[in-house]
Structure formats: structure tokens, C-alpha cells
Please model this.
Amino acid sequence: MQRRQFLATTISLGAAPLLAQTGATNTNPAPKAEPGPVWHDPKTWGVEGRICGDAVRERWYDRLPADAKPKVTEPVWSLSRHSAGMAVRFRTNSPVIHVRYKLLLDTLAMPHMPATGASGVDLYAKAPDGKWRWVAVNKPASKDISTVMIRGISEEEREWMMYLPLFNCVDSLEIGVKEGSTFQGLAPRTEKQAIFYGTSITHGACASRPGMTHVAILGRRLDIPTVNLGFSGNGKMDAAVGDFLVQTDPAVFVIDCLPNMSPADITARTIPLVKQLRAKHPATPILLVENRRHTQSWIDSSLQTLNTAKQAAMKAEFDKLKSEGIGNLHYLHGDALLGDDSDGATDGSHPNDLGFFRQANAFEPVLRKILKL
Model:
């Protein structure tokens, strides 16, 4: 064994001088460096998913205008700075799409929600058949991100849409394309928006990607701009939020706050909020969404009782409003929102991607009827 090891060492050591004596050199030229991307800032053409679009904001990617800060609760204000539901649209023939952006929050993920959904950007392209198709999502590992979303695609002009993070605050963002490529930032559409006011479920917990919330799915399916006013744990039919809802002129108000409210809250706040909206918008459709059932409520009787009580409270207020002659008021039952097999939620409460897909399926026919699509 010792002799075999010695011979092996000798051969290994002897090889170096032999190679050195050949005088071999690498004559291949160094690869030419690829030119850096040309960067474009959406602030120059606009982003979809905000209300009061021309209002002054503390930060450009805030969902609510600056004057909301002293009027809404502190949690609502803080959560309104998340970029949930915002989307940047553009056209380019670039074979590569870059993105660089800066986040404000250190927390990139949550125990029940991945960083791709909470802090990632989600890229879609319009296919030849006119439908939006998913392309890529990044995997953020820091607050300062610069990455290639996709490369090597054919150089034909396409329409693109990039959804912004659901549970983080965007400080700055730029989209990069290959030098010499065409690029056109697409201004927010002028069609009336569908405004969704709700809880963490509307906000986007626990979608794996920003484009997988039911609000985003419905926006693509119905081809309408949407606004996500989900405030995690704080969607409570607040009159202060209503004050900003009435400053808009939407295609429909979708009120989906029951998961954050007790039956008593529902009884106290539903009629005042609807009448607040009706005072400024006498004909705009309003859709009241019933409480979804927790996916483990089939075995947890306390949850079953709570869900039933919330649904009954909402239905009673809806019936009162209808009896008072409040028109263009609509109702979505909650039992089927997450399906009936207990697989539609991450933690029993917040939808997973399957649950969001099912919610979109439940909302779609109702909204199509309301909006005559």
C-alpha cells in the first residue's frame, strides 16, 4: 500500500513540469461582454391598481393617497403601502426581460407564504390567442434585487404585464430590455376599475405568486383593470376607507370583509357602508361577498358555527337593504368559495393557489352578469 501511494504521488508531481514544457497557451479570444440592459422606469407611464390615481402619495407605489394617513387606522395605512394588486404593462420585442427593484420591508416571506408571493414580481405575456399566459416569477433573497426574468425568447413584439409584490413595499422599480429593442410603456387603462375591498384574503395571502390572487385572475379573465384594497386583518367595512372608495368611479364595488368581522360588526357596519357608497354612486353595482368557510370547519364545530353566524348576519343586512329599495345590489354566497374538499386553503383560512382559482371561478359568472360582459 505504501509503495502504491508513493508511485501515485510521483506521477502526479511529475505531470506539472511536463505540461509546463509544452508551452501551450489559450489562443481563443475572450468572449465579448454582452451589453447591459436599457432600463425603463414605470413612473414615466404609470401603474395599474391604485385609486385616486393623480392624488399626491407619500411613496409612488402606495395604494392609498397621502391624505389617507391621518384618516384611516394606522394598520390600514401601513398595509396600504404594500403594492398588492399593482401591475405594470409594457410592449417590447426584447429577447430578454430584466427587472431591478428595491423593497422597504426586511421580511421577504411569511411562515405560511413564500417570498415569491410576498415580495416577488410576477411576469405574464399576452399569447397569440389574446390570453394572458404566465412566464416567470423571481425568487427574492434580499431587499435590493436585480435579475433576469426570462431570456432567449423570440424577438417579436409582445404585450407584457408584471404584477408587483403582495406583502412588501416597493421603493423603486425598473424594467430592462436588450439594447436596440423596441419598448413602449403602456399607460393604465381608462376603463372603469373593479375595486375589491377586503381582508388578507383579498390582499393575497397565501398566493405563491402575485398573479395568482383571485383579484388578479379575474382582471385577466375579464380584461378589466382591478384595484386590490385588501388590508390583512383590517378589512372591517371602515367608514374612513369608504371615504376613499367614494372618490373613485368604478365599474363595481366588491365588498369582501367578513373574515375580519364578527357577526355583530357585520350587523353594525354593512348597511352604513352600502349607504355611504350609494350616497355618491347611486347606480354603481355593489357586490357583497359572504364569508368563506374555513376548510377544516367540517370537523371543527366552533368554526362551523362562526361561519354560519357571519353568513346569516350578512344575508339579513342584504335583505334589509333590498327591502329599502337599494338597487343594483348583489350577493355572492360563500360556501363554495374554497371548494368542498378542504384542499383550498394553506392554513384553513387563507387560500392556496387552488383556493384562489376556485374563488375566481365563483366570482367570474357573477361579475360577468353584473358588468354585462
Remarks:
- The longest strand covers residues 96-103.
- The chain has a mean pLDDT of 93.
- The radius of gyration is 26 Å.
